[in-house]
Amino acid sequence: MNIVGDDLQVARRAALAGAAVGMRWFADLARLRQEMKPDGTVVTEADRAVEAEIRTVLSAERPDDAVLGEEGGQSGDAGRRWIVDPIDGTALFVAGDDRWLVLVALEDEGEIVAGVAVIPAQRRVFWAERDGGAWEAPLDDLGSARRLAVGAAAPEISVSVGAAEPAAPDVRLSVVPLPSVAEVDVLLAAIPGRPWRLHPPLLVARGDLDVAVQSSGYIWDFAATSLIVREAGGYYRTRAGDTRPGRGLSIFARNPELAAEAATHLA
Predict the structure, then answer these.
(1) For residue 193, what are the domain limits?
(2) How does pLDDT run across 123-158, given as a tens digit for each residue?
(3) 27 and 127 co-located in one domain
(4) The domain boundary residue, chosen from 132, 147, 162
């Protein structure tokens, strides 16, 4: 079996290869054909092309592993499974918004052990491996990576609800002083706000937010970022309390207490 460190390099190569394909489409959105999936979300040629490139890398590097992709479904049935979201935030992508991501994670016997999140249009990449920490670097200078850590104190709290839709105001929960966990009832005060410049779970990993909530999604939406937040010292759970990523609402927080408190207000 390959050591996790080698797997992380494979995950990063696959994600960066997919990001390069995504950027070529992002530079020429006028020719991009869009379709609607049965669940009402947008899918494009770019989504499929990015996933195909990632699968090509994984097939060459880890031919015996299974792959689960948002667009192509699952291939293989090994205990090791790569989980791919080729373009997380397709609605942002087609609108020319630079916040879309490419997400690649590795699940080994049910546990996420490596994860990469690339924000190609912002030239940033985040990654984590189990017991190896979480890191952020410029896309063109991976050697200058800095280790991430969730906030130790609680200067503010904010929650992102769902994906940002460029056609409508971006709804966020209030940003307020948070002297104690008991005061997380401010989560109920939803207000329109300006969009976050980064995917909110990554802001938790960086120590910029205390809690981020994604109101819906699938395992490919959460696999990579759940590990990045955990390896930064934070906590991930579903609404039901499962610490393995799955389908539905997900909570990313700097500690379990904040995640549990948020869950009570989102029930």
Answers:
(1) 171-266
(2) 999 999 999 999 999 999 999 999 999 987 554 444
(3) yes
(4) 147
Q: Which of 234, 171, 235, 178 is nearest to 206 (CA)?
A: 234
Do residue 58 and residue 131 come from a single domain? yes
Rounded to a whole number of angstroms, the distance between the first and last alpha carbons of the chain is 41
The distance from CA 49 to its chain's CA centroid, rounded to whole angstroms, is: 19
Label each residue of the chain as H, E or C.
Answer: CCCHHHHHHHHHHHHHHHHHHHHHHHCCHHHCCEEECCCCCEEEHHHHHHHHHHHHHHHHHCCCCEEEECCCEEECCCCEEEEEEEEECHHHHHCCCCCCEEEEEEEECCEEEEEEEEEHHHCEEEEEECCCCEEEEECCCHHHCEECCCCCCCCCECCEECCCCCCCCCEEECCECCCCHHHHHHHHCEEECCCCCCCHHHHHHHCCCCEEEECCCCHHHHHHHHHHHHHCCCEEEECCCCCCCCCCCEEEECCHHHHHHHHHHHC
User: Domain tally for the chain?
Assistant: 2
Which one-letter amino acid corresponds to residue 101?
A: L
Give the CATH number, domain containing residue 99: 3.30.540.10
| Domain stop point among 147, 163, 183 | 147
Residues 141 and 22 placed together within one structural domain of the fold: yes
Q: The pTM is what?
A: 0.86
**Whose structure tokens read 């667009």?**
71
Task: Give the model's pLDDT for residue 4.
Answer: 55
CATH assignment of the domain containing 257: 3.40.190.80
